[in-house]
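Lesson 9: reading folded outputs for more than one chain in a single document. The general rule is that every protein is listed as its sequence immediately followed by its structure tokens, and records are never interleaved. Here is the first one.
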Amino acid sequence: MRKRILSFMVAVLIGLTCVSVVVPDVALTVEAHSGRTDARGGHKDNKNASGLGSYHYHCGGHPAHLHPNGVCPYATGGVQAAQPAAQQSFDSVIFNAAFYAMVNPDIAQVIGTDPAALYQHFVTSGMAEGRQGAATFNVQVYIANNPDLVALLRNNLPAYYNHYLTQGQFEGRKAY
């Protein structure tokens, strides 16, 4: 529950320069940039606050993301794609490195147990394959329990992960 509250608070505070929020027994400080981007729609992130490296994009108002092979993952007719919307660490309601390695031994055998490598696989391949990244989210259960999303998101599996991360968990939608 505490992780969900923190995830929600981080999402709400994105775009603010520096804010301290106190939740009972928890202090959270969030730092973000001023919103300035270069001609390519991206900017340097020297502190790697996004966890995406020293440079990332915010195309079309979407959350911080990378452009694998030079292509924006959101350039699919407005439907969110590859990058999860909010990421302050590798662990979230849709991804847990230890869980991902445990339920995907084929991946762990090739990649190992490094959380960053497992997360990178999850983002670039695992979501599109419908792999379960955390005990708290199963994309097949989410699709089955939310037929209203099927007309909107169709077979774009990464979009279901993003929807749950940014909206579904806060709406109380069943995902496991």
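And here is the second record, again sequence then tokens.
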Amino acid sequence: MEIKIYHNPNCGTSRNTLAMIRNTGVEPQVIEYLKTPPSRAELEELIAKAGLTVREAIRKKDTPHAELGLDNPALTDDELLDAMMAHPILVNRPFAVTPDGVRLCRPSEVVLDILPLPQKGPFAKQDGEVVIDAEGRRGGKNGE
């Protein structure tokens, strides 16, 4: 079973998503997208399959988003994609790709919706928030 994650190891959300994938017993293909960015076609496909608009897939925080004027509503998707290709840090993360779909995993537990295998044990995020309890149930506000 092939699972991919477009990952930034400096991002807690990305690390939590990767850990939840591994908690199923599967070792995903980890693509550090800042070192190996997706092609434009791959990026467009990720965004489309995740059901997002290009604007929804752009990361604003800790990026040159404001300096580049990317909040201008007159910019086209092509212009936004050009910026994302020139500055991969603008690609929001993490994107996860599984046989059951593609998601931008923000928050990280969104990945649970597309993992074909269940979690093998309890899981808590790095901040201690319980995502999967000892009985295998989703915890927190998304699992109620």
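What the second record shows: The chain is about 25% helix and 15% strand.
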